[in-house]
Amino acid sequence: MPNILLIDDDTALCELLAEYLANLGYTVRLAHDGGQGLRELFARPPDLVLLDVTMPRQDGWDTLHRIREMTALPVVMLTARDEEPDVLRGFSLGADDYVTKPFSFAQLAARIQAVLHRASRGDSDEHYLHLGDLEINLATKTVARGAEIIKLTPTEFNLLIHHSGEVVSPEQLVREVWGPPYTDEVGNVRRYIWHLRQKIETDPEHPRYIFNERGFGYRAI
Hints:
Elements: E1 3-7, H1 11-23, E2 27-31, H2 34-43, E3 48-52, H3 60-70, E4 75-79, H4 84-92, E5 97-100, H5 105-120, E6 128-131, E7 134-137, E8 142-145, E9 148-150, H6 154-161, E10 167-168, H7 170-178, H8 187-200, E11 210-213, E12 217-220
Parallel strand pairs: 1-2, 1-3, 3-4, 4-5
Antiparallel strand pairs: 6-7, 7-8, 8-9, 10-12, 11-12
């Protein structure tokens, strides 16, 4: 089973959550501040990071920024701050999911499974996809424009390649990209489309790759 790094200064929550996830077969390592978490991550990269936002010395925002400078591994934010600006900030920094406290352990486990599934999707593919001047390597799950490598999270990558050339409704994207635990969170699509455009479009206000088809959904060329 995958290895999870849990970075949270709430030691009681960490112990209970680690025990719950261990009973599901996950290997869980703990860190109680951002600095310790980064040291653990770079010493032994996990398959997924659970990252609290509010921590002493180095908060979750700064920690996520450092993680994204080095790797695209899946990160799920854990926080009591569910206001729209905080959610958007998490997505803009490259979070793959955003779970607000209090949450049920079963709900979090379902989201972990969904994020890991998105991250592993496409491992058997060995060919390229071209969207305009973007070259997408489906084996390594990388996106390039000429010599420039565009860093995408696993969720952003799957959203970009999903049903290329077809018009897909937000509801269908939520079901197929995020999975069953997210059926009531269609707003995730709008947020991710916005951030994906910031990365791949030379002019996000005049997109060339991902289009809104008003009343129907989105289409990637």
